[in-house]
Amino acid sequence: MKKNPLITIGLIIILMLSISFSETKAQTMNDYCQIPPFVGFAVEPNILFVIDVSGSMSWKAYSYNDTDTDGDGYLDNYNPNVSYEGYFNPSKIYKLDANGIYEETTPTGVPCTCTCIRWRCRNFNWGGCVWHGGGCSRWGCCIEEQCTGDCNLESGNYLNYLNMARIDLLRWAITGGTPSSCTGSQTFNSGYCNPELWDQPGNDVKVGNVCNNNLMLMVME
User: Fold this and answer.
1) Are 98 and 147 in contact (CB under 8 A)?
2) pLDDT: is 187 or 150 the higher one?
3) What's the CA gap between 130 and 136, in Å, rounded?
4) pTM over 0.85
5) 96: part of which helix (H) or strand (E)?
6) To the nearest whole number, what is the mean pLDDT of the chain?
7) Domain boundaries, the chain
8) Of 55, 52, 73, 72, nearest to 64 (Cα)?
């Protein structure tokens, strides 16, 4: 019986295709990404900042070359409708204490009133003196006042505008702030994610542990 060569060739092709298909499998990421065997665990990357610390970094970030030409106590280009970020919280009020340190405070609503309790008599007005002030025969100059009410208060927004240098804003940006979301063991909660709230009673988990931002940070100056 004579065999048809076309049938033989067809059988060979079918056999080869069946063998090829049997060894084909879907590819996974493990086929492409491998951790070296000497690495026991995955290491999160460190971040290295190389920062310019030349003289210009000490310039004022917001108020460079700004002046108070109208004498109202505020620099001319300050805009209270703009939020100026920095070390002070723009939405809070600060009070200057006797040591020259600003502390957060809550205004009482009582206007600031100052009364002179010590006078110095002079023959000439050296500025700020009052004619016959304090019982003086000529000019009386106040050398000590006693103030009550909301005195020496300033918004954190203006303090940032007035004081923040360029290097201050850079340091603030890489070391502070409030995260917009949490990626750790807790869902977003201001009590856990706000650096100003996490250490209050009932919030016993640090921001870094909850919001997954506890990577090593090195700043070289």
Assistant:
1) no
2) 150
3) 9
4) no
5) strand 93-96
6) 75
7) 34-59+166-221, 60-108+152-164, 113-148
8) 55
